[in-house]
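RECORD TYPE: inverse folding
INPUT: structure tokens
STRUCTURE:
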């Protein structure tokens, strides 16, 4: 039986996981048993994502990690990204990501020089994909920085407007006794946002 664990990630509270959830349907359609679906809103440039770490801890030998794109798994600098992928492989699992050619089955059936070549090509393709994900992240950050500078120069930059509705919901849930984790889930935001808003509220009652 083919077993998969699905990792779904978006970067901000404003994005939605619905589109990526289609991956769950397509994975099952490909005759995989889905052992777990791990969803979180966090930057791919962070290695300490709770759901990612939980998924890696849950992995069993022979399982497959499914994600929408390689940048859902990592936007980390190359060395850190390779370390992250290495932790997945160390559990005996492999990645199944659209756009990333998987030569593992061919390499497993090959021997001698052919096996070495296939494994080397696989590593090169993975390294290239991870580096491209990081490059895209840095390009986006630079464009954002330039956009802010231009807006400031034109006197049009006011910063991100606070989401009053979400703030009120967070405060109400915390006042009702919900944990930070439960509040984040019910409010549809990140735990870091809950902590930030709750700290602001407590400092300014």
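DESIGNED SEQUENCE:
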């Amino acid at each position: 039986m083919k077993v998969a664990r699905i990792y779904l990630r978006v970067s901000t509270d404003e994005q939605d996981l619905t589109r990526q959830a289609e991956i769950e349907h397509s994975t099952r359609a490909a005759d995989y048993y889905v052992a777990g679906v791990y969803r979180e809103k966090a930057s791919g440039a962070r290695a300490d994502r709770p759901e990612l770490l939980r998924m890696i801890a849950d992995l069993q030998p022979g399982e497959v990690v499914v994600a929408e794109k390689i940048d859902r798994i990592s936007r980390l600098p190359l060395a850190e990204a390779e370390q992250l992928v290495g932790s997945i492989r160390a559990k005996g699992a492999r990645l199944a990501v659209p756009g990333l050619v998987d030569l593992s089955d061919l390499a497993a059936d090959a021997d001698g020089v052919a096996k070495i070549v296939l494994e080397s090509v696989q590593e090169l393709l993975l390294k290239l994909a991870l580096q491209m994900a990081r490059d895209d992240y840095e390009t986006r950050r630079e464009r954002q920085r330039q956009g802010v500078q231009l807006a400031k120069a034109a006197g049009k930059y006011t910063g991100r407007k606070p989401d009053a509705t979400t703030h009120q919901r967070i405060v109400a849930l915390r006042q009702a006794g919900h944990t930070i984790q439960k509040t984040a889930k019910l409010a549809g935001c990140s735990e870091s946002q809950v902590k930030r808003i709750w700290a602001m509220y407590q400092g300014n009652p």
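NOTES: The mean pLDDT is 84.
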